Amino acid sequence: MGQGQQEKVSTSLAAAVSEDIGAALAPVDAELERRYPGDPGTRQPVHTVYVPGDLFAADTIRTWGEQALAALDEHAPDAASFAAVLGLADELAGPVYDRVRDKLEHEPVEDLRVDFEDGYGLRPDAEEDETAARAARLIAEAYARGTAAPYMGIRMKCLEAAVRERGIRTLDIFLTGLTEAGGLPEGLVLTLPKVTYAEQVTAMVRLLDAFEKARGLEPGRIGFEIQIETSQSILADDGTATVARMIRAAEGRATGLHYGTFDYSACLGVSAAHQASDHPAADHAKAVMQVAAAGTGVRLSDGSTNVLPVGPAEQVHAAWRLHYGLTRRALARAYYQGWDMHPGHLPTRYAAVFAFYREGFAPAADRLARYANRAGGDIMDEPATAKALSGYLLRGLDCGALDLVEVTRLTGLSRSDLEGFAAPRRGDLTASAG
User: Looking at residues 416-431, what average pLDDT do you find?
Assistant: First the structure.
């Protein structure tokens, strides 16, 4: 065939065949878009800090940052000593340490949950009423002053019979207080604990729907996290994945699945000494959660460690190494969020997160730049990999591990470019990069 001549193309199927298949699959196309909309593209906090309702105060976020900085000053006063404790590479020591200190000074907490469940316990009704109202007032004031964490809310009591009415009342008081203080903040997050049956999720949806109607809010305005703390929430008695049913029962309101390390471990009979987020039982539960949530827009959070960095230096350093290692392990498994239970956990939370993103920054930026420029190289990446690379860089930017100037310098891409790669149209993921 001569140059410039077009190849003859022949087909055998009538156009009606494609049209019939398209019509038959139209309901599936709609279901895919509804059930699997993909990641919402908003910032995901790297942690959630739980503070008992009676201990939450107007200065909680600031005092957590101050206590975390004091722990650094006492037990790792410079980059070299901090790096020695955690085993950080020399080239990471200075950048990570400096960023940790800056984070603790300016944004020590990314997500705060005022706890009315295990951390608060059972109190007289009048006392919990007052505490819930005070939490709403303090959170509203924090958002008005610009001193709030990016995300804030409460963990209510669960919807099991023994505490159901109390949980509903606390939720009502809290949401009503926020509404009357100027409206629900964009960063509002609610956590529903100890969920065992999908019907409990349905009940939470009904509660929030009733509140929205009572207050004239947009339907679906209020979302919530589902806390996975029982074996039945992972595997139902018929062998199906209960957590997948829960996501469906949430009717688009579920924002996250949070693993409850100690309740879940105890539910399986794991002895106290071995209850940890890296136990095989924990890995199994989180793997099921991860698969159930994939593509739905529901995000995953790891649990916590109960080993606190307190006491003499060697004890603090040991706790820091444990927390750092667990956090790095979780990040490698795509659990980008976890719980922190003590101000002393903040230095190692941010050290682990910052080291994770800074270690992989240059290779990820290079691969994404090559993909964007069709430059090739020794790795043939596809749209799905570009999505992962850009998502990695965006998470690094959101938490403060990376700066946009350095990301743009290495990739040649703006933030909007990164967001475009991170959230491709569904059909784009089926095409190769070549």
Answer: 70
Helix axes 60-75, 313-332, angle to 10 degrees: 110
Q: Which residues pair with 49 in a beta bridge?
A: 112, 340
Q: Give the total residue count for the chain.
A: 434
DSSP 201-267: HHHHHHHHHHHHHHHTPPTT---EEEEE-SGGGTS-TTSS-HHHHHHHHTTT-EEEEEE-HHHHHHH
Question: Cα 201 to chain center, whole Å?
Answer: 19
Mean pLDDT of 358-384: 83
Q: What span, in angstroms and rounded, lies between the C-alpha atoms of 62 and 325?
A: 26
Name the residue type at position 154: I
Q: How far apart are CA 320 and CA 311, in angstroms?
A: 12
* C-alpha R_g of the chain: 24
CA-to-CA dists, residue 359 to 29, 87, 337, 338, 396, angstroms: 39, 13, 18, 20, 11
- For tokens 């009979």, the residue is 269
For the record, the structure tokens of 7 come out as 């190849």
Question: Are the C-beta atoms of residues 242 and 198 closer than 8 Å to each other?
Answer: yes
Q: Which CATH number applies to 47-357?
A: 3.20.20.60
Positive or negative torsion for Cα 119, 261, 321, 347? negative
The reported pLDDT for the residue numbered 179 is 97
Judged on CB neighbours under 10 Å (0-12, 13-18, 19+), 96 is buried
Mean pLDDT for all residues in the chain: 94
pLDDT above 60 (res 378): no
Between the CA of residue 370 and those of 50, 374, 378, 386, what are the distances in Å?
42, 6, 10, 10
Name the band, by pLDDT with cuts 50, 70 and 90, for residue 384: confident
pTM for this prediction: 0.92
Instruction: Show Cβ contacts of residue 431 under 8 Å, excluding neighbours closer than 6 positions.
Output: 382, 383
pLDDT in tens, 112-140: 999 999 999 999 999 999 999 999 999 99
Maximum Cα–Cα distance across the chain: 90
* Chain segment 161-172, per-residue pLDDT in tens: 999 999 999 999
pLDDT for residue 434: 32
The domain spans of the chain are: 47-357, 361-430
Instruction: Locate 88 and state its tokens.
Output: 């950080």
